[in-house]
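Example 4.3 (complexes with small molecules)
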Amino acid sequence: MLNKKICVIGLGYIGLPTSALLANRGYKVHGVDIIESTVETINRGEIHIVEPELDTFVKSAVNSGNLKASLTPCEADIFILAVPTPFHDGFIPNIDYIISATKNISSYLKDGNIIILESTSPVGTTDKIEKILNDSGVDTSKLFISHCPERVLPGQIMRELVENDRIVGGITPEATKKTIEFYKTFVSGEVLSTDAKTAEMAKLTENSFRDVNIAFANELSILCDKFNIDVWELIKLANRHPRVNILQPGAGVGGHCIAVDPWFIVHAGGDDAKIIKTAREVNSYKTQWAIEKIKNQALKFEIENSKKAKIACMGLAFKPDIDDLRESPALYITRELIKSELDILAVEPNINNFQEFNIIDYQEAIEKADIFVFLVAHKEFKELYIEDKEILDFCGVLNR
Ligand SMILES: NC(=O)c1ccc[n+]([C@@H]2O[C@H](COP(=O)([O-])OP(=O)(O)OC[C@H]3O[C@@H](n4cnc5c(N)ncnc54)[C@H](O)[C@@H]3O)[C@@H](O)[C@H]2O)c1
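Answer. The structure with nicotinamide-adenine-dinucleotide bound is encoded below.
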């Protein structure tokens, strides 16, 4: 197997770590991206994204000659598609990148090739790849087309790429078998076999499960606020039941996975995707609810003190201890407060340069702010001692 050549399409958070790992395992990897600067950076042995250990992997992969990046695909034995799958306006799944990547590889395919879709995809997308290839004049009868969804955690990608269990679903049982053989060469977790649609739905299900359970916690937090109960204490107590495990509420749900993927099910499932749709709505509502709470607190301060409150927004990232702002409710809240002309001091210890507005050090915020709004439970905030200031803690960072 190691003498196989692999062509990876899309060199982002998934494609680049996968390429670098495979190249370090001895595969010849040809990585493709449409962004020229990405290709150039990788060919210098450097990286364009932040991920622990990735720099070492990429450097040694490029130095060994096993990893080369390019703007165009080439002939290979195995093709891996790791391109983005966002949504269009109205939460309609956008598989344009998959369609274009599939068309781009079509002229390089030959009998016996394995084509693996790793992007998180709406149910039926892997079948569509076969159709797109057929429409491009490719005889797919001797190709092996599968879906193998990625489920790594940013920050732990290099370890989880190897250790996580994987689900493989081919459009035929032979495709499943061939694809599993490949993953078994570098995955130490179990590689589980199913069909393409089930594999697609499994990935969407995993992220919807998280979303629904966070929605439950977020709803509890709103109810507890109404009943004047400390939600953090409540959850700690309820979780002492041996079969209860409530997640933590927050300022909403963000990131490019959990806040996006459930919509793929809702779009296809319509009225039958009741809980999944409602969970999305509850989590988005939590963000709006937080904005209203902050505005009310600011108004109260202004009335009581005859001056405008300085409000410190503590954290902008979509989750603790990272710099990722994609779909971040904390960033959304901060933007909305700025738009409402409140006096905002933004704090994000994981980001140094931000073009849109000024970010200040949290120590400076402690000196200047009247109201503290904790939006993300970054480790730097856990030990903060804030005296005689108003605090709204949406992420429970002070209660942990
Ligand atoms: N990042 C994660 O933690 C994670 C985890 C699990 C699943 N996923 C899924 O993996 C997929 C990829 O996500 P990502 O985070 O790596 O995205 P990303 O945006 O970091 O990377 C995608 C790359 O693909 C490139 N690209 C787009 N169209 C292309 C084309 N036609 N040909 C070649 N390159 C092209 C882009 O320039 C970009 O560099 C998505 O479906 C995502 O939902 C991501």
